[in-house]
């Protein structure tokens, strides 16, 4: 059974940075497109960023373009999300999954940005 484990969240001030990691156990990501999603309190889960298996194509939500960078290490079976210039509206629980999401959701990692 596949298990996704997200880590790297925390509390930061606006303008700060965090690097999130997502590791999978039970299978490799293989040739799958991977993505990050987030869910803010009281809101629906939303797409943040995606990366193809080769890393050649990356897509971002408009709200994070120019501030977030998604990357992957297929050998380590890990996906990363570098988040710079964080804003209070980035506060959410962040999750990774395939794109489109088809695996069970992990616990996520909490990101809280203070103004």
Provide the fold topology.
Blueprint: E1 3-7, E2 10-13, E3 18-25, E4 34-39, E5 46-51, E6 58-60, E7 68-73, E8 78-83, E9 92-98, E10 109-114
Parallel strand pairs: 2-10
Antiparallel strand pairs: 1-3, 3-8, 4-5, 4-9, 5-6, 7-8, 9-10
The number of strands is 10
Order of helices and strands: EEEEEEEEEE
Strand content: over 45%
Class derived from helix and strand content: mainly beta
Q: What is the averaged pLDDT score?
A: 93
Question: How many whole angstroms does the radius of gyration measure?
Answer: 13 Å
The oligomeric status of these chains comes to single chain
The separation of the N and C termini measures 40 Å
Q: Give the number of helices.
A: 0
What spatial order of strands do you see in the largest sheet?
2-10-9-4-5-6
The global form is: globular
Helical content, roughly?
under 10%
User: In this structure, how is the largest beta sheet organized?
Assistant: 6 strands, mixed
Low-confidence stretches: none
Descriptive notes:
There is one protein chain. This protein is mainly β and 115 residues long. It contains no helices and 10 strands. Strands 2-10-9-4-5-6 form a 6-stranded mixed β-sheet, with no helix packed on it. A hairpin with a 6-residue loop joins strand 5 and strand 6.
């Amino acid at each position: 059974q596949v298990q996704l484990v997200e880590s790297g969240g925390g509390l930061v001030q606006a303008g700060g940075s965090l690097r999130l990691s997502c590791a999978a156990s039970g299978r490799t990501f293989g040739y799958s497109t991977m993505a990050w999603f987030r869910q803010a309190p009281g809101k629906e889960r939303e797409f943040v960023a995606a990366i193809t298996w080769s890393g050649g194509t990356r897509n971002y939500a408009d709200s994070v373009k120019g501030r977030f960078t998604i990357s992957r290490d297929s050998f380590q079976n890990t996906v990363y999300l570098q988040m710079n210039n964080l804003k209070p509206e980035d506060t959410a629980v962040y999750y990774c999954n395939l794109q489109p999401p088809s695996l069970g959701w992990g616990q996520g990692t909490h990101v809280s940005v203070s103004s």
